[in-house]
Specification:
Keywords: Kinase, Transferase
Largest sheet: 5 strands, parallel
Shape: elongated
Bound molecules: adenosine-5'-triphosphate, magnesium ion
GO molecular function, one term: kinase activity
Helix content: 40-55%
Radius of gyration: 33 Å
Number of strands: 18
Protein name: Serine protein kinase
Organism: Anoxybacillus andreesenii
Number of helices: 26
Pfam families: AAA_PrkA (PF08298), PrkA (PF06798)
Oligomer: single chain
Strand order of the largest sheet: 7-10-13-4-14
């Protein structure tokens, strides 16, 4: 469908959603769908919940965030279950400002933007629908029209609690425009929109000398004072501050802790009492979620100042740490690259993964337990199997520090390095080595890195480089075999047949001649030696494998190539050892003969077709692995 058609469709949809009627008619809607009267916090919570919740490893994963935020599942679970959910139930946390605290570029702004965009969309759905007094600059809740002394009766009839007072402006309009007839007051359905300043606001402090509190709470409209005769006539006031406009929805308070105190005092009363003071009016009720964000240093200095105590007790701090999983970090980069101008550059396979390894290493803290190193910890965190460790160890590791993920390299730095590599070198294809080089160069220019830290980071770059060497070698060797998995499986089956015969003191049958033959000791040893199983230990090793096989069989599972880490490693190494010479000779000769050339072309083609390379990156990979094997 072309874009004009879509625009027209959209207009049609918008028209369909609109609703306008009297307060009396609004009450009919309420009877049917009491949800439309929910509080701002409750609407946010329901929006998150409606997007779906998935149980993963006993944890709730909120799908609402999963398209944009990666690896923050635990932090988000805490945020939803310790703030949004109780706040939706009108518990006390609702009266606190939500302060997201986390390191730079850790996704705080992204999280807030998702909530805003989410609310805009949600207010257009059935369950997120919201109504307001027509013509009110603060989109006031129509239920405020019901006088206090009738609210208990209203609750008895509708089961809905009403909070807040009718604003000065609407009190006046009720008298003047509607002659006090509440049931006639016009109500309309509203749609949140930050651009149109409906239900979503952003406040960002500027120079405290020039910034006016009016930005938050609105101001007197001097041009209309003459008309209305007095400054205290609400019609002469513009309720257009961010707090006004964000009523019913949410307001983002950027750099809250950098803000001048006088701005913060308004928040005190708003959050605690649900109202704020503007101009010469009675307190104005507002119902909105206030989200602020900050980093750790700023937060520490804020709470160390005694003057801030009152505000501090009205803030609820939720940590937004860096992601600590390599595979999720890769997704972050993919997303950021997709959104950038360099999206069409070819990025060789494993490039982002290797960069992510470096980044995650800078964020992890050294394990306190002696028997695990940082690289293993990194793998465990990413959900990989690490021989000798299980999920209990993982939980223990996570408990060792409670501030892990609050420091280290941020994703924006990595993306900046990747783009500067691409732009400076005018490359159309980059690989892991390019990126590691660029990350290394960048450390010199990084503003906040001490010499000691730099040393540590350089070391992580070499660790990531070593990981890449392994990956690269395996990749090429795999591409040399016609079907790697197939070969590995055949070799493994062959080995297991021999082991079985050996342990049971049986003979095997030669598949060609049908003759009985002894187990192939040479074959078994050539595999076992790959992982250092000694002549003395071979019997125990083989028996252990047989026991594993029967344990698998008892559970009705098939023992295969992936069931035994060490055996898999042995098989892999054996296959590679057999291949090594071929690969070495083929990839490193300067003047390949016809046979070799054919093989190289075949391998390059396989790298391109099956492994996601292009011809530049495939050739670079072959050359690099050639040089590695010749060391
Ligand atoms: N866990 C994450 N998942 C997905 N994207 C992330 C994550 N962390 C950071 N990003 C990406 O990194 C970039 C910077 O994130 P964002 O601006 O949200 O961070 P921030 O915490 O607000 O940083 P700052 O403190 O500098 O304001 C964004 O493009 C964001 O999408
Ligand atoms: Mg930000």
């Amino acid at each position: 469908m072309d874009i004009l058609k879509k625009i027209e469709m959209q207009r049609y949809e918008d028209e369909k959603l609109k609703w306008e009627g009297t307060f009396a008619e609004y009450l009919e809607i309420l009877k049917d769908k009491p949800l439309v009267a929910q509080s701002a916090h409750s609407r946010v919570y329901n929006m998150i919940k409606d997007a779906g919740v998935e149980k993963v490893d006993g944890r709730n994963q909120y799908q609402f965030f999963s398209s944009q935020l990666f690896g923050l599942e635990e932090a988000l679970e805490k945020l939803v279950e310790e703030y949004f959910h109780p706040a939706a139930k009108r518990l006390d946390v609702r009266k606190r400002i939500l302060l997201l605290m986390g390191p730079v570029s850790g996704g705080k702004s992204t999280l807030v933007a998702m909530l805003k965009r989410g609310l805009e969309a949600y207010s257009r759905t059935d369950r997120g629908a919201i109504y307001a007094i027509k013509g009110c600059p603060m989109h006031e809740d129509p239920l405020h029209l019901i006088p206090h002394h009738l609210r208990q009766d209203f609750y008895d009839e509708y089961g809905i609690r009403i909070e807040g007072n009718l604003s000065p402006l609407n009190t006046m309009r009720l008298e003047q425009e509607y002659g006090g007839r509440i049931e006639d007051v016009l109500v309309e359905r509203i749609f949140f929109s930050e651009d149109r300043r409906v239900g979503i606001g952003t406040f960002s402090p500027s120079d405290p000398k020039s910034q006016d509190i009016a930005d938050l709470t609105g101001s007197i409209d001097f041009s209309t004072i003459a008309e209305y005769g007095s400054e205290s006539d609400p019609r002469a006031y513009r309720f257009d501050g961010e707090l006004n406009k964000a009523n019913r929805g949410m307001m983002e308070f950027q750099e809250m802790l950098k803000c001048d105190e006088k701005f913060l005092w308004h928040l005190l009363s708003l959050t605690q009492e649900g109202n704020f003071k503007a101009g010469r009016f009675a307190l104005i009720s507002a119902d909105e979620l206030i989200v602020a964000h900050t980093n750790e240093t700023e937060y520490r200095s804020f709470i160390s100042n005694k003057k801030n105590e009152a505000l501090h007790s009205r803030i609820i701090v939720m940590p937004v740490p860096y992601n600590l999983k390599v595979s999720q970090e890769e997704k972050i980069y993919e997303k950021m690259i997709r959104e950038s101008d360099v999206a069409d550059v070819h990025i060789a396979p494993h490039t982002l993964r290797v960069a992510a390894m470096f980044t995650i290493l800078t964020r992890l803290k050294e394990p306190k337990k002696g028997d695990i190193d940082l690289v293993k910890k990194m793998r465990l965190y990413d959900g990989e199997n690490v021989e000798g460790f299980n999920s209990a160890d993982l939980e223990e590791l996570k408990k060792e520090y409670n501030d892990e993920g609050m420091s280290g390299i941020d994703p924006r730095y990595v993306i900046n390095r990747i783009s500067s590599t691409i732009i400076r070198k005018e490359m159309t294809s980059i690989n892991a080595l390019d990126v590691l080089r660029s990350l290394k160069e960048g450390l010199d220019q990084h503003p906040s890195i001490t010499d000691e830290l730099k040393e540590r980071y350089l070391n992580f770059i070499s660790v990531a480089r070593k990981e890449y060497d392994d990956i690269a070698k395996k990749e090429v060797q795999k591409a040399f075999v016609y079907s790697y998995e197939e070969s590995a499986k055949t070799l493994m089956d062959n080995y297991l047949d021999n082991v079985e015969a050996y342990c049971n003191k049986n003979k095997l049958r030669d598949p060609l001649t049908g003759d009985e033959i002894n187990p192939d000791e040479k074959l078994m040893r050539s595999i076992e030696e790959q992982i250092g199983v000694s002549e003395n230990a071979k019997k125990a090793f083989r028996e252990e494998i047989l026991i594993r096989i029967s344990a698998f069989a008892r559970k009705g599972k098939r023992f295969d190539y992936n069931s035994h880490d060490r055996l898999r490693e042995a098989i892999q190494k054996k296959l590679f050892a057999d291949l090594k010479d071929v690969v070495k000779i083929t990839t490193s000769t300067k003047t390949p003969d016809e046979q070799q050339l054919k093989k190289i072309n075949e391998v390059v083609a396989r790298l391109i077709d099956e492994h996601g390379y292009n011809s530049t990156s495939a050739n670079e990979l072959l050359r690099y692995v050639g040089s590695l094997l010749n060391r």
